[in-house]
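User: Can you help me understand a structure? I only have the sequence.
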Amino acid sequence: MIDNQALDGNAIAGTLAEVFGGDMTTAIGTCGHCGTRGPVAEVVVYRRAPGVVVRCRVCDGLLMVITQVRDVFCVDALGLAELQAPA
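Assistant: Let's start by predicting it. Here is the structure, written out as C-alpha cells:
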C-alpha cells in the first residue's frame, strides 16, 4: 500500500531550498485557478507521487510538480499565477 498522506508546504522546505536557493516556505503564492493567496507553507503536498505534487488548499488545483532526474530538478509551476519571494 502506498501512503499518499497530505502534508503541508513545510514538508518540502529542503527541496524548495535546493530548487530556489533559500527558504521559500514564507513566499506568497497565488493560485492560478481560484486566486487564493497565501504562504507556501500552507499548500497541500503529496510526496509519494512521481515527484512532489503541490496543490491549493482551497480549490485543490494543481500548483506545482517537482521532480528530480539525475541531479537536476524539474519544476512545473504553471498552476501558480504568482510567487513572491520572501522578504
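Now, to help you interpret it: The first strand starts at residue 7 and ends at 8. Helices lie at 13-20. Let me know which part you'd like to focus on.
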